[in-house]
Every structure is written in C-alpha cells, then in structure tokens.
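User: Design a sequence. Structure:
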C-alpha cells in the first residue's frame, strides 16, 4: 500500500468521574486519532489508529503535543517515502526515530486497519485470536476516602466486572485494600497498581499487602527499576507485574530473565504497536509468564483493537478492557459493552468498529493535516 495523506484528530472527551492515579488526576481523556489514506490494489482506503499518549508526560515521556509533532516532522515523512507499506514493517521503517512508541503505534494501527480492509480479515483472525469474548476487568482510581473506595468498588462488582484493580500510592494503600477485602470477601479477583509510586525502601510496607490475597501488584517501583523489582519480588508473596517498565520485547525478556515479572501488563501503545505487543505475548507464553491486556482509557477504536489482541491464548488474566461507559458518557465509536463480566471480541473486517463523524466532530479540538 502507498500512504497518501494523514489527518491527526486531537480529541478531548469528558470522563464520567475524575480518574486519579499516583501520578495525576484526569477529568477528561485527551488523545489524538490517526486518519490515514492509502492507495491500494483495492483503490483508496482509509485506516484509523489511536495514540494512547496522555496530555502530560507523567505516565511515560510521551504526551499528545509531542506525538503530533514527531508524527508531522519525522514519522509521517518516512512512511510517505515507502512504496509498498505493510503493517508488519512499519516499526522497521520507523526504527531510526528514537522512542515515541505511542506515536509509532498509532500509525502502525492505521496501516493495520487499511491492510485488513484490503484483505477482508478481522483483526482477531489476523492475530490468531481463539475466543469470542474476553473477561472484562476494571481499573478504579484513588478515592478521597476508604468508604468511597468501598462504595465505588461495590458498584463495579454489582455491574459484574470480572476483576477489580485499585490504584494505590503511599498513604492510600493498605487501608483501602483491607477495607475492600473486609467488605466483599476473598472470592473476587483483586489487584493493585502503584504506577511506580514506591521505592525499595517501602519493601516492608508493601509486604503487608501479602495479607490480602491479591492477584498481583502492578509496577510498584520506577520504570527503570527492573532489577529492583526482582529484589522486591523475592521479598513478597504477591506476584510481581510490570507495566511502565515493559517498553519493548527486549525489556520483557530482561524482566523475565531477572525474575522481575511473574505477570506482564501488555499495552500496544507503550511498546510501539500491536505487532511488538504480540511478540511480547509470544515471549511471555514461552516463558510461562501470564499476560493480561492493560488499558489507557482508550476510545472504542483502541478498545476494540485491544479486545482482539486479548483474544490470544496467552492472555490468561482479566485485563483493563472495561465498557466504554466506565469512562465516557459517549464514545466516538459504537459503545463497547460489558455483559456478564465479558467484552465481545469483534470479528468483522478490520477492528470491527466505526468512527462516528458527528461524535468525532463534537469532541475534536484540532485537526492537523499532513501531506507528502
Ligand atoms: C486504566 C489504567 O489504569 N491505565 C494505566 C494508567 C492510566 C490511568 C489514567 C489514564 C487517563 C488517561 C489516559 C491514560 C491513563 C492511563 C495503567 O494501567 O497504569
Ligand atoms: Mg498500570
């Protein structure tokens, strides 16, 4: 395929409730979508992608304005110069640009979408998905009080979510976890995510979480602290899970070899795209490491693509693929719904969802056109 034009659509979608983590408190979802048009042997085809970069560089070094800039000035010109562009080679073509995995992933996603429309394949079948629905977990933000944490989690359990993940940070960890276990018992899947808020000095404190039968503890230490996570894993019973640290298949191999990750949270944007994410899935399965699909508060476009990836056999733990309604009053695609703790895996051509032009218009703050 030959890339002929790109439009980046920056959007801001209000969240149903503020979402607080150890590193920020968001009240809207800011991201950009990639609308890419290609000349193919089936005529002119448009593919869509989504960048998961946040508005500020607080989860990782990427952020919306940087993704738009690096795409306009470096990534798009490289792809415009490729005569026969394929999804499987986007990462290779972009390899000389250092970093910016989320910006690269958004472009690769648009190439995947167009390529699937040409081949008439669903993303699920392209990847080798094996199930028609995946268990739907929910990520719960830090609440003002322990009582509010219990109330919010009770509501998600009543909705039927397959697993609860609670954000924690120093000072808001043991008490809310203990209260939730006291309120709802031990029979539901419960895990925590610290978003790198602790250090090894906190090891004795974090070990107290071992009393609550958690499925895993996600990224307690810093992104660069792979060796330190291996040290902490030796001190805790709760399985160690990495998110921010797993920036590539190579980082996943290092983390597994060092014993820093018994579980890996897979996020295509964080690793440069769905093709690299599948490599991490395959590598983890080969090493007996469980993986689950993480979330970046994606629109329905990313949510649908994530559900297809999560339908691979190695995704043995419920992921953060929640219903659209967990975050948004309205999505820019068809609503992703959770039924009986499950989210359906789209199996129609491409990602199986369509961007609604009216809703895109409503939530768009800027459109940036990029031509060869
Ligand atoms: C669902 C979940 O917990 N996601 C990330 C953190 C996160 C949290 C909040 C976000 C808000 C806007 C965009 C991306 C975001 C990512 C995580 O697993 O660490
Ligand atoms: Mg996380």
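Assistant: Done.
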């Amino acid at each position: 395929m030959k890339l002929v034009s790109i439009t980046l659509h920056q959007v801001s979608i209000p969240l149903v409730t503020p979402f607080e983590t150890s590193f920020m408190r968001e009240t809207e979802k800011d991201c950009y979508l990639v609308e890419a048009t290609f000349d193919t042997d089936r005529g002119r085809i448009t593919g869509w992608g989504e960048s998961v970069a946040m508005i500020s560089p607080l989860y990782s070094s990427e952020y919306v304005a940087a993704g738009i800039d690096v795409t306009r000035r470096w990534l798009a010109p490289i792809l415009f110069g490729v005569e026969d562009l394929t999804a499987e080679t986007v990462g290779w073509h972009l390899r000389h640009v250092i970093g910016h995995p989320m910006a690269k992933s958004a472009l690769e996603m648009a190439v995947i979408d167009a390529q699937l429309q040409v081949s008439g394949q669903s993303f699920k079948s392209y990847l080798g998905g094996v199930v028609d629905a995946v268990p739907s977990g929910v990520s719960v933000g830090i609440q003002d009080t322990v009582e509010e944490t219990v109330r919010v989690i009770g509501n998600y359990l009543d909705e039927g979510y397959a697993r609860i993940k609670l954000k924690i940070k120093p000072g808001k960890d043991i008490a809310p976890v203990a209260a939730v276990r006291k309120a709802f018992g031990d029979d539901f899947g419960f895990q925590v995510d610290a978003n790198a808020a602790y250090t090894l000095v906190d090891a004795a404190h974090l070990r107290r979480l071992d009393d609550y039968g958690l499925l895993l503890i996600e990224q307690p230490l810093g992104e660069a602290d792979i060796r330190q996570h291996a040290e902490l894993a030796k001190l805790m019973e709760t399985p160690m899970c990495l998110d921010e640290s797993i920036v590539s298949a190579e980082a996943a191999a290092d983390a597994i070899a060092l014993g820093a990750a018994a579980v890996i949270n897979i996020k295509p944007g964080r690793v440069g795209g769905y093709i690299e994410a599948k490599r991490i899935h395959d590598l983890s399965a080969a090493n007996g490491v469980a993986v689950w699909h993480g979330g970046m508060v994606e629109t329905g476009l990313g949510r649908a693509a994530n559900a297809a990836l999560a339908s691979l056999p190695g995704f043995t733990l419920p992921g953060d693929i929640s219903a659209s309604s967990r975050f948004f009053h309205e999505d820019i695609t068809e609503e992703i719904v959770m039924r009986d703790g499950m989210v359906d895996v789209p199996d129609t051509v491409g990602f199986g969802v369509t961007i609604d032009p009216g809703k895109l218009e409503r939530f768009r703050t800027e459109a940036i056109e990029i031509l060869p």
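The radius of gyration is 20 Å. Residues 193, 195, 218-219, 243, 265, 294 surround magnesium ion (ligand 2) (CB under 6 Å).
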